[in-house]
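Example: Glycosyltransferase involved in cell wall biosynthesis.
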Amino acid sequence: MKAALSTETDQASPASPKRILYIQPGTSSFAGIERVVDTICSALSDKYPADFDIDVLYTSEHKNRPHGTQSYNIIDRIVHNRRELMSVLRDVIGAKDYDLVVVPQIEPTVICMIACIGIRRNFAMHLHGNPRLEPSHLKAKILFFLMRIYFIKRLTYVFGTSPRQLESFKAMFRSNVRQYWLPNPVRRFDALQKPEGEEGHVTFVNVGRFSFQKGQDILLTAFAEAYKLRPNIRLKVVGYGDGEAELRNQIRDLGLAAVVSVEHHPDNPSPALAASDVYVSTSRWEGWSLAICEALRFGLPVISTDCEFGPSDILVDRRLGLLVPVSGGEELVKAMLYYCDHLEEERAHAEFRQSFIDIYDTERVVDVHADALRIAAMGPAPLIA
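Written out as structure tokens, the predicted fold is:
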């Protein structure tokens, strides 16, 4: 497992650029993984045009996808069913002599490799979530099984977003495939002044997809208990997703409609982060957590559940924030009350938080990704048979 963050690279440019294909998830929203792929591929194309020829395949129409001119090559092949997807994957991957194909997550990687049976290519699987918790339905269980018994031996590399995630994958799949830790890039935001709020209020904020994984139900339950003891607290829940109706119902049932706001900032959460005092993440599992990193970019202290994986890899110093059990409960309430009562002294660490997260700037992280691509694209590609 490798990762060395730096601002320089001493790699010599190759005689001809490595041909790299990234596969974007076939999702409807341009969010976590999609944004990471776009950011990294743009940075690679900008910084290393002599080293890499980057193509990115889009097979679905993403909401709020950036429409600017990307520096990488966009391949748009929108599909409407699994048969079309398999055909497009085989057609695109086979049409160009790619040195490496990078696919996010286990299920899409298996589908991609099945589509390419008989084609000689290097495949790198890029983990973004928690492999131990993801096979929750029959299709996923079958694809995980196929990866374990057959396709894992045909992978060139496994990339991951956190060291603990890669360790878990290796143990779960008894994998001997080489691994590389690739930190996610953390974007910078335009400077925003904290707006004038109600005097004496402490505002907590959570950003993420409205879903069981992100645990907003855990947060609301704890916030309701904290509100009984500190009526000056407020909460912003920022995001999108199928769980919004259930979220709003819980807010109503807990009697929190006057102190909890549900907000949508699909492209940029900075208005909510700039208007808040403390970030709270109550995810049941993660692969990393860009949302925590972006909160630290604003100098906010973080309370996070100590879930697999990511938060404990990020919050490595007490000045960055506090870890609480995944169940939340009393420990989460205590952490919220602590920041209510010690907010001024915690604000003294804001610059430390901002400086700490600079190590994950795109300009630094892109060098790590470039090194990983060079290594993974070396040598003859295996035949997927």
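The first helix runs from residue 32 to 47.
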